[in-house]
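Illustration: UPF0173 metal-dependent hydrolase DFR87_07860.
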Amino acid sequence: MSQIRWLGHAAVEISMVGKRIVIDPMINGNPLSPVKIQYFQGVSIVGVTHDHGDHLGDTVEILKMNPSAKLYATYDLEMYLADQFKVPESQLIPANVGGFVENDGIKLALTKAVHSSEHSDPTGIVVSDSRNTIYHAGDTGLFEDMRLIGQVFNPDYALLPIGGRFTMDPKQAVLAVEMIKPRKAAIPIHFNTWDMIRVDPQEFVKGVKEKGYEAILLEPGQSIEL
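Result:
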């Protein structure tokens, strides 16, 4: 069964072709997380959009729990984690912003994001199999190249931050949906974790639907089948 499960904040679990992929797995310190770290036993791929603590999160611990799991992030960030936290080379998928990299039936790509980070550039992550393509935008402001991301990757689902202050707000994220043109639905993430990013997600949902696209508002722990 293929599905997307939101785990609060920017943490998202994607299940496809029998694999579990988790992106930006901040669990400890995530007041919205419906799961504990033990939940990630059996994860196949850990994707990290950038190195801020609320996105890098529990990546190192999850990789240690799963010695056969792979880390997917920019090469420079991978090298930092290898040097500072002894993540072995065997767990790294070397990559940077560009085209798809295939790993055991899953296609992965990194995209541009407009944000900040300490080690390497911030990114979005695209995850695809033969049936569905999912774009996780990471932390980002609105930028015109989202139109190109939509054209190149043609995502079925777009996971977009809407919390404002550090990322797009709901109105800007609606404009992002217009540029990306997700074929099935847009899903808001990165909001209401803390007061500084508290917004009304219904503003996003309403705006997306007014533009003729589908929006799905998930509660932390809720999933949709693809």
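Reading the tokens back as a structure: Helices lie at 53-56, 59-65, 75-85, 146-153, 170-180, 201-210.
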